[in-house]
Amino acid sequence: MTSSTAPGPAALSPRLPSPLQELADDRFTRRGLRLLLKRDDLIHPELVGNKWRKLAPNLAAAAGRTVVTFGGAYSNHLRATAAAGRLLGLPTVGVVRGHELAGRPLNPSLARCAADGMRLHFVERSTYRRKAEPEVLAALLEAVGARDAHVVPEGGSNALAVRGCRALGTEIGAHADVAAVACGTGGTLAGLAAGLPAGRRALGIPVLKGGFLGAEIQALQQEAFGARRGTWSLDERFHFGGYARTTPELESFAADFSARHGVPVERLYVAKLLYALVALAAEDAFPRGTTIAAVVTGRPFPDQA
To answer: pTM for this one?
Structure first.
């Protein structure tokens, strides 16, 4: 499909702005706090939450060219990119971390990517770590036969994505004092903070351990806007061991939250965010009268429930 005939992301009819849902939760109300959920999980049934906000501008920039992106064996970003390719008629290639996975039966996440038409290219972890180096990237594009591809980084976070997430802050700004979001690569927080009006702040809850994310977010804002934007901070205490790690305590919390409020809670990001907000409320980290908006960036896939 050529760029002149390729439909843009708007053809997928996203639900924007996404709904704001107020919850009656005594863990917040008894401390004089209001909790809102920013239901980005309802934007689109297949390009869910921040995946839509980050991918839409990249898909528009691809203009019918092959989209090449990166992820691990259980990457929701790969799944969303593959779904977008199927829906828009764009060829997609997923460069997957872990050469040892090649030849094995695909797990449900990668099987879904393949079913949606994504070509999977497995690389050794040492090569994957160097994927942003120009010569390594050029060799990867040559290997997949897509030298003219539009390249989207792991997690979808680049300047286009950050600018796409700025609308999230604009949508929340008039309704909440604090906008909170779980962070993987930091692109959503970088855009969210930039879109908030003066006097509002963004709070990021990293789901990886390591303490490196602040510098990454600042670099993304520099790339997207030329400078740090907005008021934002990180609380690094709630990663539960790192990316894709959960504990029985977190599982129990997520199940209880879903039972209380009828909201599906994705475990790797959203559960950690909500757990953090409950803990911070208990610590009196927010002044009475504060309205907090928690961004629901995704929902459980059926094979991950």
So the answer is: 0.91
